[in-house]
């Protein structure tokens, strides 16, 4: 079943509903309706999936046009998520590390075509596995084509937890590892490769990796709640990471405390919705030639340009450069320097024990999508089933892009969320001379909607005869009212639904 008997109780009392959107559009019914649709859809699935805390934001150029927070970042202390809640952002960290490396290259301190062994000769100790370590260039770390294994030599063993390894122990243990693929020939996602990039930053800049990122990115963008440590942070703002469901419960685990302490340049940053919104706005300013405090527009565009596709076989870089040209123009799925490309989006996702996150940017429309969660299996990513990021873009972001306001005022009072508190959960929106019913149990409600025409007082009938429950040949619905003329129920052929709230 897609909802449970606690749905109504959870709906009102568990989740914070402090959404924000642009004041000049606050009277646009289409936008308000889409916000209500998304808000009710995500609550349905937070309840069903038993997720913990989630913070989300939509940015349009230099404004946060919508943000909201749901659930708890600390179940023991009953602390709700907020825009200042600090989440571990896992692999989104790789964007910051990549920008730092490109910044050093832009300043002439390194060349992205330099061999990494020039700066980190300890890599000679790795098992070459028949491949030449000298062929790994700095840029290969950023495109994940170094051939290095995924992680540093650290064993996640609950019964034998060691102190997190430092950069020095990463290099000391490199002799226990081996190159997996021939360098510069195949995509192989590597946290170890990004950690090597962090070591490079330290050796070139002369300061600690985290200090370099904080000084040259976080501080410049006033990302005051972003860091690599809990030190000096309000503990009440820090999201506790929770596991996948175990015995129908979310639990804390020792592993969640280690997230970010291992392979720090690949997964160690912590941030908030507010801070990451500043980061997204910076991208749009740079691409508009309005900001060059960190790196130039030329460098940022080059970073985001697709350079390698994740093909499951070795590919010569000359062939890949040609293939990438066509992929950028027709499909755009692959990797640049620290940024992933996925259709119209560039950005990065993050996932680790207890945390899940997504940062996406539609540069053409200057739309940014950010989702932070303290639950391991929150469906944040654009390719996930029940993807929060995809629904956030399709439902809310697109409504701001369209900015249409075409409702027939006669039908606004039918707009609401209706449920039988067991199986059916729907949202009804007024559109022109019709009602549109969205299935809140659907993974993507914009593709699961049904149009109903008016056939009498409080009576509507589905225009299409194709579908299930809401769009059959017998699908007429009737709204019932009380003596005060308030809608108290919706009756269909075989079901009765009740409004969640009154308008």
Structure description:
It is a single chain. α2 runs antiparallel to α13 (388-402) and α3 (93-106) packs across α6 (191-205). The longest helix has 21 residues, at 29-49. The protein starts with 6 loop residues before the first helix and ends with a strand. It is elongated. The strands form four sheets. It has an eight-stranded antiparallel β-sheet, with helices on both faces. An eight-stranded antiparallel β-barrel has the order 13-14-15-16-17-18-19-20. It has a two-stranded antiparallel ribbon with strand order 4-5. It has helices at residues 7-13, 29-49, 93-106, 138-143, 167-172, 191-205, 209-218, 254-258, 264-267, 273-287, 297-304, 317-330, 388-402, and strands at residues 20-21, 54-60, 63-70, 72-74, 79-80, 87-88, 270-271, 333-335, 340-342, 345-352, 355-362, 367-373, 416-419, 425-431, 434-439, 449-456, 459-462, 476-481, 487-491, 496-499. The protein has 503 residues and is an alpha+beta fold. It has a domain at 87-400: Beta-lactamase (3-Layer(aba) Sandwich). The protein contains 13 helices and 20 strands.
